[in-house]
Amino acid sequence: MIDLKSTPHSLIENFSLMKGLLSTYGPDSFQVLREQAFRSFSEFGLPTTKDEEFKYLSLKALEDGRFAPAYGATIDRYQVEQTAVGQVDAITVTFVNGEYAPELSSAHLLPKGVFIGSIRDGLAAHEGSIVRHLGEIATLKGKLGTTNDERFVYLNTAYLTDGAFVYLPKGVSLELPVHILYLTSADHGPLVSFPRTLIVLEENSDAKVLETYLGIEGVYFTNAVTEVFLGESAILEHTRFQDEQIESVHIGVNAVHQGADSIYTSNNVTFGARIARNDVNVWLDGEHTETWLNGASVGFGHQAIDNHTRIDHAKPNCNSFEVYKTILGDHALGVFNGKIFVYEDAQKTDAKQTNKAILLSPTATINTKPQLEIFADDVKCTHGATIGQLREESLFYLQSRGIPKPEAQGLLVYAFAAEVLEKITIPTVRDILEKALFEKLKESQKLPDQDGE
Prior knowledge:
Layout: H1 10-22, H2 28-44, H3 60-64, E1 68-69, H4 77-81, E2 91-96, E3 99-100, E4 115-118, H5 119-133, H6 151-158, E5 164-168, E6 178-185, E7 191-193, E8 196-201, E9 206-217, E10 220-230, E11 235-243, E12 249-258, E13 263-270, E14 275-284, E15 290-299, E16 304-313, E17 319-328, E18 333-342, E19 349-359, E20 365-374, E21 379-388, H7 392-400, H8 405-421, H9 427-443
Parallel strand pairs: 1-7, 2-6, 5-8, 6-9, 7-10, 8-10, 9-11, 10-12, 11-13, 12-14, 13-15, 14-16, 15-17, 16-18, 17-19, 18-20, 19-21
Antiparallel strand pairs: 2-3, 4-5
Helix pairs in contact: 2-6, 7-8, 8-9
């Protein structure tokens, strides 16, 4: 427990400074959420490696950092267009340092009843839906598990201001994808922002959403929370791309509630940040749901990338399929913790989990921990984890055809991660992220030999 009097931290001190401003935003229920969340975060404080959910990930950068509240920044459309995702053809909603930037967002004629924009603007017509779901999906209260850790959800909620809101009424299918773009520019010193995203797809609706986090400059901390609600038979392909500045810290939580017969696909792509933590928590709350979790992470230098996934099979006849791949070089650290809970009533569950990692350096490290907790009898649950290096026979095959060893290594690594990126069904987004992967590998300079030379 943190002692607020003896060890005040900027992430806590800022709340007192901003409390008055925060109270002016949103309905009264928002202020109740903030106060409850702040008390919960203050009770536990920042996690350390003594906490089970963070045992492999040091957050000393947060402990030592003095992060000021985010402030406005000027970013023009040309700067956005020069980023990796600047040319995506989509309905775009852009935020700069956590503030909605309509001048960098796109205007489209939307189907009747659809809303895509900021939470602040969405409250006018959809306050009931926002209040009903915000804060109710990103919670682990009452769910199985003894080390459930929500402190970064608490922190984000304590500072709840604006964010992105996507709402599709019953039976609507969007032709264009939605792009939620969060940009950070810390040109006047370290700052912290708290992006909040709420995606609600009612019964029989269908959408594809790209959620992107990019850094323009500076040292900063991004504490992001996304909540997704899928009604019965709703379908969502949700691609999350994180390529923050290399000295930043990014901690994101993606919480999903699936209704019966819904299909949720998550494509989680992580290239950036000095410290990156991704939590994906999915609650299957109806029969015959499908859940697909795909992940690709690439880290070099001293990057630390931690992926935690959790799937709660609470109802019978549901399927989940998970494939996470990690590529690490230099002194990079990787963590994968995949949990599958099968509740007593969840008969006929089919859950498959696969985690694979390639280490390109003898000083790179991966910690992997698959977890299955099954309380039903008639289920099929499997998990597999492999950690290795590039196969010598594959390298030899490419070299025997005249491809130099560095290029051969690069091709094999690219193919390893691209297998996940190929699951993205938006062609332009898939091409952009494959190009970003290639550039990430290129920036790492020459891939080292297997013996570290």
